[in-house]
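G., the chain you wanted modeled:
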Amino acid sequence: MPLTSPTAAASAQLHRRIGLRAAVALNMLEMIGVGPFITLPLVIAAAGFHLSVWAWVLGAAVAVADGLVWAELGAAFPRAGGSYAFLREIYGPQGAGNWLSFLYVWQVGFTAPLSIASGCIGLSSFLGVFWPGLDSAPFAALPWLHYSNLTAAAACLLVTALLYRNLSSVTRLAWVLFAGVLAALTGVIVSGFAHAAATGGWHMPSAPAQPFSVAMHGLAQATLLTTYCYWGYYNICFLGSETRKPEKTIPRAILLSVLFVSAFYVAMNLAALPSLRDAASHAAESAALRVQLVADIARSAFGRWAGYLIAALIVWTAFASVFSLLLGYSRVPYAAARDGNYFQFLAAIHPRHGIPHRSLVALGLVAACFCFFTLSQVITMLVITRILLQFFFQHIGVMLLRMQRPELNRPFRIPLYPLPPLAAIGGFLFMLVNRDHALRGLAVAAGIAVSGTLLYLVRARRMGQWPFVSPHAAENNRSANFL
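Predicted structure as tokens:
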């Protein structure tokens, strides 16, 4: 049976209301979450004082190279769902693209809630500055369950409720959250340089020389962390069908957000170096110590209440990032379900607010469940799975599309093609190969890929889709229900 009636399809549409400024703000909201404040001392500990800044620069270079791929695809296919629409179009909606787009949505069911949960877990960690007992266990029989887990899950549900409204209201709220994000970054930078000025001026801490192989291993570990902190520059691609003049807005928003955020991150790292010094080498000991290191920058410069203020702004920033993450990713299952390529239940648009409300609530609830994992577990599963099952397919796909469809209208073309997609692939491989416990992360990604592929094959055979029928026959079945 058809997915929706013609009347319903005409009346239930997403509207183009997002301009360039809002697009940049939404990207930056997702990029600047709790990540940089927690990982800052870890980046310094991994790469060393002298290479830590280069980890942020290298992460920005990878983000630009990957962002150019997103920009070309987003301008050519400005649709809801971002990567879902790209993979489906590149590899053929009635061929392998049907499988890869389904596999992408399947992994989004894991990685999007993981990404959202990482922000909520980080948020609850910083709340521990105000409530030290937040990390204690409320039930002796469940020692793994802490108040911080419950707080993170509650934050996730609150964001879901705030997004359950029309896009105009959401955009206005995003600007309020964005102001707090800029205040948090500025506070850390100003505090760091003020502390350095009060203690004899800024200078690079001394560090022992390291063998080249050890230095490169540390740089790879640090770059993996900085890359996680940059992710989000592509958020506007998931809102492509709600963006005004997407052929211009999407590429500009991606490049501007990476430029602005990288400047903030490099400045924050430079400001923090004199304050962290020896403490950064112990940053991996506990989450509480990571929080203390960042809050101490402001406390050392301006007093105890400044430390509390920075911690509060970082909580605000984490909340804003989760807000933007859930907003963007909620469009992916909706887009797939609308095409008949996922659970049809998720294809609904709210009759009054004009948002994919069922997809929004579903992701919010799953993310709340993931809040009961540790932050390190969440980040590891997220990074490896997304690189292998999303980014690599897009890097290869944008080159295949150039060869197979040279006549395609491309409002934005990757400069210096094919160097940016090749550089992005090389950068991600550098991080994956050199990281600790690499096989463990690969196993998680492989498990998601295998389970998603098996589910797709069962579904495809039942519905008569690729690879069990010819593309011509599959065209006749594209509106069939999922399962």
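The chain has a mean pLDDT of 83.

Shout if anything looks off.
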